[in-house]
Amino acid sequence: MTTLEQSAEKLDFKRILPILVIVLVDLMGLSIIIPLMPLFAARFGATPLIIGILQATYPMMQFIGAPILGRLSDRFGRKPILIASQIGTLAGFVLLGFADTLWLLFLSRIIDGLSGANISTAQAAIADSTNEKTRTQGLGLVGAAFGVGFVLGPIIAYIVLAASGGDYRTVALTAAFFSLTSILLTTFWFHETHQDDSPTISSLKSPFRFGAMFDALHRPTIGFLLLIMFFYQVAFGGYEQLFSLFTLTRLGMDATDTSGLFALAGIFIVIVQGGLIGRWSRKRGDRWLVILGVSTLAIGLIGTALTPRVPVPWYSESKVMQSLAGQDEIRVSTQNIKVALPDESRRGWFGIVWLLIASFPAALGGGVLHPAVNSLITKSADLREVGGMLGISAGFYSAANAVAPLFYGSLFQWLGAPVPFLAGGLILLILWVYAPKAIRKQGEPK
Length: 446
Known about the structure:
Blueprint: H1 3-8, H2 13-33, H3 37-43, H4 48-76, H5 78-97, H6 102-114, H7 118-128, H8 135-164, H9 168-188, H10 199-204, H11 211-217, H12 220-251, H13 255-284, H14 286-305, H15 317-325, H16 350-380, H17 386-415, H18 418-438
Helix pairs in contact: 2-7, 2-8, 2-9, 3-4, 4-5, 4-6, 4-7, 4-17, 5-6, 5-7, 5-9, 7-8, 7-17, 8-9, 8-13, 8-16, 12-16, 12-17, 12-18, 13-14, 13-16, 14-16, 14-18, 17-18
């Protein structure tokens, strides 16, 4: 192998470092509020179904905004679109910090969602900065930045909650600070990565049309990958978005406890996406990664659904209710909180140990699938449409995230906490059976 060939197989880490740092800072802001959002809504009397609708608002708006901004990044460059989306995220966090009613929570998620092209634009910048041999590793490092953000975010949330006496608003304003930092980093450190080789053709393209999403579904390879992206995220998105409500009602865990589980999952995802996924992709291929991810995520979700209702040893029903009720001027009556907590007399270690064991295959599957599927999409698309295709992928991903909490929230409220997680696992089992036949091996005829 020549030196040039070896260089082509090696990821240029210095080139993608600014992108990874920006994603990390963005995700630190997002992950600070993820464990709190269902509990924040419960404070204002939201039922599991209403919490599901709230959680669906952000991805539903992102479903509209991300494909448009992704295609605009193909026309005008990654940097201006990334900055515009980050400004929207900042505005959403500031509004969340001052929200004192449920409808303001909804408004903050709408604003943030409409401008939510941060990740798809960052992925497009990674695709600009890599080749076919290094793209999976590059996208995997974006996922690793996600994981680091999910580790640091909950830890920062602990510190902020302790310093503010449990004030959720301070946590939201801290997230806004990280969003402002990401805007400054993008403005002064990030260099444009998009090179338009055909400006005449590009100028003739419309920014985006929703028909392009349906057209993409008819493309032999990309269409199936988009379906995989959608159905896997229906299962995994509901798991992520209602996990804190599940741990609250099943194990009596408050925001601090659940943030600890998010941090553990983040550490594991960093190990997988930062150190293992690139090696696995080179040795086994993205097809193998997709099948691995679907199977392990199915096992993890079904295991989560079977978690026994044994609250953690330190559980106190009165303390959890007081934490949910809040403090000072935003304090609400505990009678307004409509969640069923477990029986304090059944405390023990069995429930939390079981959930920890189930969380590892779930985190493995969730960490592997997203970068592997997007890598296959970029390898199947024309170089001039990579940003648009990743925007479409983000659109399907966001649509799944919009469907997932509605699906999970309704099952959670009407059939019980374990049922939506079991349903998600069964969906993935079907994909697991079908995927080896539907995803061709490299070199097979299309």
